[in-house]
């Protein structure tokens, strides 16, 4: 046997004898449906993580509230029970209270303004920087869209909201806003909402268009009113315990994957609204694209007053950044 060939056989035998590099599985839990944009972006993120870590990390996605609702997911994230979640900024507010102010009504008017606010606001960056001390950190901001209403009966102005029981998620800023509009608020987990509307426990709910579409809320509350009352992006967060276990190179890889998925998420949501509304209309939904927005804007002033009373200068800071964005991007 010639020497080069023998060396090749020896190298091959040694390689086969070595154990394969262990693959670490990371859990990603969220509350969106299988057909939703959140799941699509999570899939992009998972593939990119595996690619950028050369297969050493695999992200296992649990959709549809399998591991818990948004508050539970964030609680588990902080404890290290799961590795990733993606949720509305308001859902993180029990841990970083000032994030309640991201749910102030009518901060921005379009997606481009919203993206600029989240990418460039120094005030918002400072709030996000508080998260690691709470057990998690933000990697990138994904998109969910502007929140609108789905109700059993027509809704054109706050006058129609009087006495109407509406489901929302547990967030004080959202509660102040919706109560200012005239709604009676009912808090419940997202998976329970369809049946609650169907059985008459509530008369409707509010969510971004993609969430309305993927959860088929229009089937039980056919009046979709484009109030666009709150801009509702969904930051992706990683458990601080998981982050600490990653090498600097893997931290960089996971962050890059998060940013790639964020770009995908933004483009998907911004590009889907019109098509999803058309499809829901074809299935019987009644789209109110021009409600009395002036009346809705006027109605929420008490919510601003409550926010200012509780959060003081932080309200001025986020309003200053939002005003600058609205002037810069039309």
Could you give a short account of the major beta sheet?
6 strands, mixed
User: CATH architecture of the largest domain, please?
Assistant: 3-Layer(aba) Sandwich
Give the CATH superfamily of the largest domain: Bacterial extracellular solute-binding protein, family 7
CATH class (first level) name of the largest domain = Alpha Beta
Compute the CA-based radius of gyration. 23 Å
Q: Give the averaged pLDDT, no decimals.
A: 94
What structural class do helix, strand and pairing data support? alpha/beta
Domain module tally: 2
Count of individual helical segments: 14
Number of extended strands: 11
Q: In terms of per-residue confidence, which ranges show pLDDT below 50 for 5 or more consecutive residues? A: 4-20
Helix-strand sequence: HEHEHEHHEEHEHEHEHEEHHEHHH
Cα-to-Cα separation, first versus last residue: 76 Å
In CATH, the topology of the largest domain is named D-Maltodextrin-Binding Protein, domain 2
């Amino acid at each position: 046997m010639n020497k080069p060939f023998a060396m090749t056989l020896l190298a091959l035998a040694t390689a086969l004898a070595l154990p394969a590099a262990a693959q670490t599985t990371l859990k990603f839990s969220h509350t969106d449906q299988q057909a939703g944009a959140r799941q699509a972006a999570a899939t992009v993120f998972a593939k990119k993580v595996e690619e950028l870590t050369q297969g050493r990390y695999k992200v296992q996605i649990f959709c549809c509230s399998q591991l818990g609702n948004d508050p539970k997911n964030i609680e588990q994230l902080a404890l290290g029970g799961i590795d990733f979640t993606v949720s509305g900024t308001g859902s993180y507010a029990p841990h970083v209270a000032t994030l309640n102010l991201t749910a102030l009504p009518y901060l921005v008017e379009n997606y481009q303004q919203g993206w600029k606010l989240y990418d460039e606001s120094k005030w918002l960056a400072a709030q996000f920087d508080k998260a690691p001390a709470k057990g998690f950190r933000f990697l990138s901001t994904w998109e969910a869209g502007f929140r609108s209403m789905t109700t059993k009966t027509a809704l054109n102005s706050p006058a129609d909201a009087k006495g109407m029981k509406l489901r929302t998620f547990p967030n004080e800023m959202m509660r102040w806003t919706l109560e200012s509009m005239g709604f009676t608020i009912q808090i419940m987990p997202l998976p329970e909402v369809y049946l609650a509307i169907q059985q008459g426990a509530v008369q409707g709910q509010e969510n971004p268009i993609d969430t309305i579409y993927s959860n088929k809320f229009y089937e039980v509350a056919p009046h979709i009113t484009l109030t666009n009352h709150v801009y509702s992006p969904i930051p992706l967060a990683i458990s601080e315990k998981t982050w600490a276990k990653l090498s600097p190179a893997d931290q960089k890889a996971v962050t890059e994957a998060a940013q790639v998925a964020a770009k995908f998420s933004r483009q998907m949501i911004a590009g889907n609204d019109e098509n999803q509304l058309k499809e829901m209309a074809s299935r019987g939904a009644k789209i109110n694209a021009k409600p009395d927005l002036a009346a809705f804007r006027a109605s929420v002033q008490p919510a601003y007053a409550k926010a200012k009373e509780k959060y003081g200068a932080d309200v001025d800071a986020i309003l200053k950044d939002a005003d600058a964005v609205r002037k810069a991007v039309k």
